[in-house]
Amino acid sequence: MLTLYYSPGACSLVPHVALEETGAQFEAKPVYLRKGQHKQPEYLAINPKGKVPALDIGGCVLTENPAILTYIARTFPEARLLPSGDLVKEVEALSLLCWFSSGVHPVIGRFFGPARICDAPGSEGRLLEIAREGTAQNFGMIEKMLEGREWLLGDYSVADAYAYVFFSWAKALNLDVSAYGNYAAHFERVGARQAVQRALAREAEARAAMEG
């Protein structure tokens, strides 16, 4: 059985949603970032990077969202979670996932721990200003990608679930998202999917247990 290691509210929500979309049997094991469980020996033995997500596929543990999402999409092609059969479209999808992972996530992620980026006295304000500017630029590009379409790649894909996570973070951070009407509508569409609701419910239950 597949085992997903995730933390409630983290980017690991994306493969969590993807697995729900497939209808496959899997075990979801929470790793509480706020309690530092991702840095404990037990988890480092699973993923030495000390990050989520990690997906145990039975004797092999996959890490990094683009790789995990590609594996899920290719293992369960009937779910149509990524383009298939057209090399250009496949590579375009991979490019988008990589940008989300390496370009969008690190910028908005600075809001959650600026001291991890730079702990110099007085640096936090400027760092957050840069994060705000970079996030606005990234959201502007996503907004443009969604002009005249419901989904980022034409049909619904794991890229849409990835974009959903970033918008949810922006809302939780009280960032100004008023300029992104296409993106806001996309967020509502993704959030209405049953697979997303199931994953969110499981993560909310895990969060409640963590904080209880």
Which features would summarize this protein structure in a list?
alpha+beta; 212 residues; globular
Task: Write up what this structure looks like.
This protein has nine helices and four strands; from the N terminus they run βαβαββααααααα. It has a four-stranded mixed sheet, with helices on one face. Strand 3 (54-56) and strand 4 (61-63) form a beta hairpin. Helices cover 55% and strands 8% of the residues. The longest helix has 22 residues, at 87-108. The chain has 212 residues and is an alpha+beta fold. The protein is globular and about 50 Å long.
Compile the SSE list and pairings:
Blueprint: E1 2-6, H1 13-22, E2 26-30, H2 41-44, E3 54-56, E4 61-63, H3 65-75, H4 87-108, H5 114-117, H6 124-145, H7 158-172, H8 181-191, H9 194-211
Parallel strand pairs: 1-2
Antiparallel strand pairs: 1-3, 3-4
Helix pairs in contact: 1-3, 1-7, 1-9, 4-6, 4-7, 7-8
In short:
The protein has nine helices and four strands. The chain is α+β, with helices and mostly antiparallel strands and 212 residues long.
Average pLDDT works out at: 95
| Unreliable stretches | none
| Helix proportion range | 55-70%
Q: Count of DSSP E strands?
A: 4
Largest sheet: 4 strands, mixed
Strand coverage percent: 5-15%
Helix tally equals: 9
Q: Which overall shape is indicated by the principal axes computed on the Cα atoms?
A: globular
Q: How are the strands of the biggest sheet laid out side by side?
A: 2-1-3-4
